[in-house]
Amino acid sequence: MTPLDDGDFRAQVDVRVRQADLGRDGSASTIGMARWLEDARIRLRLPGFERLVASGGFGPFAILLVGQQVERLGPAGPTGARVQVHTGIRRVGRSSFTFEQVIVAGGKRVGAGGASVVLADKSGPLQLPAELIADLTELQLPDTGSPAAARPGPERLRREHYSYWAPLRSRIGDVDSNQHVNFNALATWYDEAVAAFTAHAAGTGAAVPPDLAPWSYRIQYLGEVTYPGDYEIGLTVRAADTESAHYELGVFREDTCLGVAEAVGPVAPRAHR
Questions:
Q1: Which residues touch 189 (CB under 8 Å, ≥6 apart)?
Q2: Global pTM?
Q3: DSSP state, 132?
Q4: Range with the lowest mean pLDDT among 44-48, 81-85, 209-213, 269-273?
């Protein structure tokens, strides 16, 4: 797989680091970086498609995220500092497309990620219009031979796959304009489950758990998580060594799996990844 240069990315935006983006170590958290990637995607200009929508030639539609990835590669911050998010298009399909992104601070890559997006109406996914495909093609990255994300195996959708459970209740503040729990809110649920598991494993009881938040997530969204609702996050440790733990997670409402994630994080507290 051939690595990309920052210059391969046609779109870039500056993002100001906010206090809410920082983790417990004083540097930007993985979830904070996921918000920067979202901000850059929202600010991306697609002029041909925007003109088509404004003229009434396409729609109504919703933009649905079906998967996202984020990896914290190094420290970023403090509050008020600026980072740069570079955005390109990895794949364009009949009804979906995939972003690839990197985060740069002080001339170094401190984060990376991306997302797969579907345009849909009440009947299901919509075919991408030619105007949108043309816009996306302008932003397409060189082919590096990177594989497409694999679909979760059937075992990931069953409760018996998971050995630890963390109950969670959706909050009205989690609901976005699509009238379901926002994808980044769901990412924080996985963070909550890992924290609950590490507290349980460390035997800290009601004390603050050790800072073992994952430095990477690969998330796939399989169904709508709504409000009000009581949910559970299932977690199992797929592998672990002296440096890192590899988690498999799933969000369930009773016996229905609505999303899965893979996460990698430290097994001992550290100042920075």
A1: 168, 231, 233, 251
A2: 0.92
A3: H
A4: 269-273
